[in-house]
């Protein structure tokens, strides 16, 4: 009863009350027949954004559906979903409970991948300080053509010191 009063109170529209009642009946029917209403609600919320993104991708690729296979991340996700479905493992929230070894295998592979990236990038850590600690006379050609923060700050300080106070 409070739901009906709350829905009516928002915009004083009986149409909103009817929409709430119809959605309640649909939700009850989904529960009665064993469907989980959460994916349906999620689909209703995400569908407009997904449709717009799909349309933008197809416009960018001139209608070529191969754009979804050209990017490495999309290709990897498609292959992982296909492999899970071939082995009878439905992707979704039940993966953790029904197939914990597969789920934790994915988590472990992410950790291993991050450790590999860390190992590959660790030798590069010392490069930026050595580049920025070079003498200014060696970088004078680059600072003249590209400008540097130090020379710009120096020019502003120099200009302020000679300007008269107002």
Could you characterize what this model shows?
The protein has a domain at 71-125. The model has no long low-confidence stretch (mean pLDDT 78). With 166 residues, the protein is mainly α. The chain is built from ten helices and no strands.
Write the layout of secondary structure elements.
Layout: H1 2-11, H2 14-32, H3 37-60, H4 67-70, H5 72-86, H6 95-98, H7 100-121, H8 127-132, H9 140-146, H10 149-162
Q: Look at the helices and sheets and give the structural class.
A: mainly alpha
Number of strands: 0
Average pLDDT reading:
78
Main pleated sheet: none
Name the helix and strand elements from N-terminus to C-terminus, one letter apiece. HHHHHHHHHH
List the total number of helices: 10
How many angstroms does the end-to-end distance come to? 72 Å
Helix content: over 70%
Rg of Cα set: 30 Å
Shape: elongated
Strand composition percent: under 5%
Low confidence ranges: none
Briefly, what is this?
With 166 residues, this protein is mostly helical. Helices cover 75% and strands 0% of the residues.
């Amino acid at each position: 009863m409070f739901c009906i009063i709350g829905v009516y109170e928002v915009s004083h529209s009986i149409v909103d009350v009817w929409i709430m009642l119809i959605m309640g009946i649909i939700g009850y029917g989904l529960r009665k027949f064993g469907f989980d209403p959460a994916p349906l609600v999620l689909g209703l919320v995400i569908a407009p954004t997904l449709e717009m993104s799909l349309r933008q991708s197809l416009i960018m690729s001139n209608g070529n559906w191969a754009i979804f296979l050209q990017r490495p991340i999309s290709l990897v996700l498609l292959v992982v979903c296909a492999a899970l479905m071939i082995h009878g493992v439905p992707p979704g929230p039940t993966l953790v409970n029904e197939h914990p070894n597969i789920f934790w295998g994915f988590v472990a592979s992410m950790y291993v991948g991050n450790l590999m990236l860390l190992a590959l990038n660790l030798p590069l850590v010392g490069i930026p300080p050595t580049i920025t600690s070079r003498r200014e006379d060696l970088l004078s050609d680059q600072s003249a053509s590209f400008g540097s923060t130090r020379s710009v700050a120096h020019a502003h300080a120099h200009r302020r010191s000679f300007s008269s106070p107002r």
